[in-house]
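Problem: given the chain below (172 residues), write out its structure.
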Amino acid sequence: MTTKGVSHIGLSTLDLDRTRAFYEDVLGFKLVVWEQMNFEEGGRIRHAFFDCGDGQLIAFMEPRDIQGIPAEFHAGINRGLGLPDMFYHFAFDAGSVDALHAKRAELLGKGVKVTPIVDHEWMQSIYFKDPNGLLLEFAAQTRPLTEADVRAGRRFTVSMRGRSPVTDFRDH
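Solution.
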């Protein structure tokens, strides 16, 4: 079997209406499936799939009144696990560095708190959060990757206590 990329990433939300508004109106992702699963034992899940580019999908499930599933939980993943925000995050391909700059300006214009452009040497990125607290990223590769990128084993030092460019949303 040949893998052709990501079909979809499934996530949860406690407010699918707010999540839908963000992914459609702020990010411009097209809603392609909307469904509701009702359970014989009681409760339901509303389920929405958004096309985040090239037919790849991101999906959200909103559980309601299902026995054994808490009514409240942190849908942002990291905080519930006691991890820094940068651990679980989702990156979307901006297509180019120019498009990345344009996307940053667009998000700022819509009132989203966005980091400055972060230069990772082989890619540039911006980071922001969705209404669920999920850390999201738009990224643009700046050069082709080669075997040398694997062999070199790039190393660098950062601080867990200092400011992180990945979560520095202040005054930008």
